[in-house]
Amino acid sequence: KFPAYYWWVVLHELLGHGTGQMMVEYEEGKYNFDIDSPPVNPLTGNPITSWYRPGETWTGQFGDLATTVDECRAELVGAYLMDDPELLALFGFTDNSEIRAEDLTYNLYQQLGVDGLRGLANYNVDTGKWGQAHSRAHFAILKTLLTHGAGVLTITHTTHTTTTTTTNNNNKNNQPPTPSPPRLTVHVDRSKIRTHGKPALGAMLLRLHTYRCTADAAACRAYYEQLTRVEKEGKENEHLLWRETVLRHKPPPLAFAQANTFVVPHDGGEKVVVREYEESVEGVVRSWVERGV
To answer: Region (Disordered) spans which residues (predicted)?
Structure first.
């Protein structure tokens, strides 16, 4: 899990955020592309018709979508490249390595599913708004794989199960059945990663990248808002049920308890000792109190 996540982040930062040329008109009549023979828009097959005019910026044009769309684009770049044999070999992953290249890719797709589900925890049902840019991006990727991945990724939601505990081999003194908490399971079909998963990610990446480079905020908003919409009724209501299960299993927030150093008597002299604290609210409070600040 960690190697897949680590290299995904590396590709995200270096090639995701680090690539992409904006089509810009710096001042009237001066462009960073040939206005007489504009680049072809890969989504339409025709020359581009939009670009950044003088004074316009990415964040200014795309507003509240700017951060989440760019994070989604960077995540897609990393995920799209995580099955490339030559690239993975540079990182030390081959068919003969301890962690095989295909296993790394498989785990990455599992993480795409898990992160998409976890992202629902940052969706506000009352306002219909997303509270975190990465979470919205992860959910968008999950929906794309579910919709266009032809089964490369599926979600199983178990909501009503019971567990019976047996105390001996003769089935005597058995505990009564107890309900098990609902759970979500991500299934990845290895055979469809390159044939269906990668093309689905690539098509999504192409859209977001083109919208960003050509300043087509209107088309981007229509596409991305539809993709990240969580409906409250109908079939899409299952997303809200997923959210309830995610929240039920959400771990408590991390508590950072700063260790303190103290000078104490030792063999007629002094020594420095380090005191660490429990990673809890109580531990954080005790850390501050004993620091004497």
So the answer is: 161-184
